[in-house]
């Protein structure tokens, strides 16, 4: 099983990193998690064949996680895709995603492939195929702070993947340090932790308590990159590996 970091920047556009996206590959299947701005270009940058993506997961609908979806679907169309594409997304968002695509003149009638939408069953194991299951956990990253009237629920998820015999925990964007408690009880082989909404002190305390031995930080703002590099270089806990992701980083697990 392989994990490839396609984009590792925060919500702020960077010249050093693309927006959030991770590719998990197992048994010939490729799952793209999140599709931020310019994800199609980010995939090219990592030499990933756009047609090889079987499923796309959307953890929440902030633009740095979804705004690249229309252009990615367009590239699939232009590249002659015929295989079905599955999109997994947060509850009550399918129609919104369809509207985003339709607004860009991407109608299913005009594609040579079908798109199958599945909304996450929260706090439960969801089946993807014989090798892969995933467990979406709602976190507090998004709430209706403005109290606006809108028919979409404000839901963001972290994801636990069970792939072959390994467990991968992906925080995606979280609301703050309290959301780290949501991962208690999942013994992950690798944790991919965002570092925009938690401090280095909070990350350090969490790692010591969690027992996770391999943590990779992502969602990295340009402004704090240097501080994060120093933090990672200085971090010294026995048998624990902490590293900073970068675009194109590929790991065999
Ligand atoms: Zn984000
Ligand atoms: Zn977000």
Quick description:
The chain is of the alpha/beta class and 253 residues long.
What descriptive keywords fit this protein?
binds zinc ion, 7-stranded mixed sheet, 253 residues, 28% strand, 6 helices, Metallo-beta-lactamase, Chain A, alpha/beta, single chain, 14 strands
Number of beta strands: 14
Using the 3D structure, state the CATH architecture: 4-Layer Sandwich
**Name of the CATH superfamily:** Ribonuclease Z/Hydroxyacylglutathione hydrolase-like
Order of H and E elements: EEEHEHHEHEEEEEEHEHEE
- Oligomer description: single chain
Radius of gyration: 17 Å
Describe the 3D structure.
With 253 residues, this protein is an alpha/beta fold. It is built from 6 helices and 14 strands. It has helices at 39-45, 63-66, 69-78, 94-103, 200-210, 222-234; strands at residues 2-7, 21-26, 29-33, 55-57, 85-89, 115-119, 126-127, 132-139, 156-163, 166-170, 190-194, 214-218, 241-244, 250-252. Strand 12, helix 6 and strand 13 (241-244) form a beta-alpha-beta unit. The protein is globular and about 55 Å long. It binds zinc ion (2 copies). Residues 11, 20, 62, 64-65, 173, 219 line the site of one zinc ion.
